Amino acid sequence: QVQLVESGGGLVQPGNSLTLSCAASGGTLDYYSIGWFRQAPGKEREEVSCISHSDNSTYYADSVKGRFTISGDNAKNTVYLQMNDLKPEGPADYYCAARLYVITRRPNEYGYWGQGTQVTVSS
């Protein structure tokens, strides 16, 4: 059973960059598709990006297209979310999630979740 740990969150100024990491243990990410989601207080969890295990195809929410990049390093069993040109937002928790094999953009179809890392974009 795979366990996920996110890291890399923090406070950053608008326009700057941040890279989140999702480190997996207990299973190889070779067999899992990974999604990144975010949730602000009082709001629903929303998709940010996801990557397929099989062909590394990727999807991005319209709000982050052209600014965020998802990538995986199988040797490190880690998936990254590079976030550039960050827009102002209050604290939001970013979560990575894993699903065996088939990629999906729906959070309720992911079976494994990390504990989240908080991101605040503010001047």
What do these coordinates show?
The structure is a single chain. By secondary structure, the chain is an all-beta fold. The strands form 2 sheets. Strands 2, 4, 5, 6, 9, 10 and 11 form a 7-stranded mixed β-sheet that branches. A 4-stranded antiparallel β-sheet has the order 1-3-8-7, with no helix packed on it. It starts with a strand and ends with a strand. 32% of the residues are buried. The protein has no helices and 11 strands. The mean pLDDT is 95. It has strands spanning 3-7, 10-12, 18-25, 32-39, 46-51, 58-60, 68-73, 78-83, 89-100, 112-113, 117-121.
Fill in the keyword field for this structure.
123 residues; mainly beta; 7-stranded mixed β-sheet; 11 strands
Please state the overall shape, judged from the principal axes of the Cα atoms. Answer: globular
Task: From the alpha carbons, calculate the radius of gyration and give it in angstroms.
Answer: 13 Å
The average pLDDT value, as a whole number, equals 95
* Helical stretch tally: 0
Q: What does the main sheet amount to? A: 7 strands, mixed
Tell me roughly what share of residues is in helical segments: under 10%
Secondary structure tally: strands? 11
- Report the portion of residues in β strands: over 45%
Unreliable sequence segments: none
- How far is the first residue's CA from the last residue's CA? 40 Å
Structural class determined from secondary elements: mainly beta
What is the chain-wise order of helices and strands? EEEEEEEEEEE
